[in-house]
Structure formats: structure tokens, C-alpha cells
Design brief:
- The structure is a single chain.
- With 95 residues, the chain is mainly α.
- The chain contains 3 helices and no strands.
- The chain has helices at residues 3-32, 39-59, 62-88.
- The longest helix has 30 residues, at 3-32.
- The radius of gyration is 16 Å and the shape is elongated.
Length: 95
């Protein structure tokens, strides 16, 4: 497998994971019968964003790099907020 093929695989894997978060959110919301964003959505967002960011850096695409960098920070912050609520209020239901 050549370098280009490897980076294309990273890019496609990132896009697949990133897109999978929408399927997860939709199916979980259908299961709960209300709109819910499960914690897994944020983990998939981080993994997909990290893979896409690596691909963007390899491609030296400043627009893509900026967009994925900002998104990664947002996803990480959401996970921190969820962890804080879980620690302080373990009885609360989370999506």
C-alpha cells in the first residue's frame, strides 16, 4: 500500500466515522422516541475529526485544518461537560 493510498484510507475512515455519528444520533433518538444526542455521538465526532484533521494536515489544506481543529475542541468540551454532570449528578439521565 502506497503513501497516497494510506492517506486516502485515513480520509475515508475519518469521513465514515464522522458520518456514523449522525446514524447513531438518529437511531438513538428513534429508540428514545425523542431527539437525543448520546455520548457516543461526541466520541465518534472526536475520532472522525482527528482522522480528518490528520488527513487535512497531510493535504496541507488550511480551510479543512481550521474547521476540523475548531470542531475537535467543541467535541472535547462537550465530553468534559458531560463528565462533570456525571460526576456531580450521577442520578441524572443522559442521552
Amino acid at each position: 500500500m502506497g503513501r497516497e493510498t494510506l492517506w486516502l484510507a485515513v480520509g475515508f475512515a475519518g469521513q465514515l466515522v464522522f458520518t456514523g455519528r449522525f446514524a447513531l444520533q438518529w437511531l438513538y433518538s428513534e429508540y428514545k422516541k425523542r431527539s437525543v444526542i448520546p455520548v457516543g455521538f461526541w466520541y465518534l465526532s472526536m475520532v472522525g475529526s482527528a482522522l480528518l484533521l490528520a488527513y487535512a494536515i497531510y493535504r496541507e489544506d488550511p480551510v479543512f485544518i481550521l474547521g476540523q481543529s475548531f470542531g475537535f475542541i467543541v467535541y472535547l468540551r462537550n465530553l468534559q461537560l458531560i463528565a462533570r454532570v456525571k460526576k456531580n449528578h450521577p442520578e441524572e439521565e443522559r442521552g
